[in-house]
User: What shape does this take?
Amino acid sequence: MKTFVYHVQINVGEPGAIAFYRALFAFLEYRVMVATDDVLGVSNGTTDFWMIAAPPARRVARFHRKNPGINHVCFGVRERGDVDRFVAEFMWPRGIAALYDSPREFSEYRPGYYAVFFEDPDRLKIEVAHVPGVTDRR
Assistant: This one.
């Protein structure tokens, strides 16, 4: 059975996380389906993302990507220059620091793998990557 990722839900705890994701997905050209103070639903026509504000009582359980559960989300881009454009036009104006001295090549993953890593307000790791022969075909 062939499948695809239909949607992903991210429960957020930091007060500015919904606004952060609204800006991120606008930059990545996702269409907003639902937007309130506590919910953001976006789609690129293939995969939907839902950011839901966690109830205050649940926000004390802080996220850490080394614990069981999701480690990071990666967005593939068609051209290597798109990674650099993302850094210059989205990350730098918002003062978002890159992780792992990125953007750079990660040849240990695949030849030509070029990516930037950073964290959302709750410290979920996010990656924007160009992988020759993979992300440029989508």
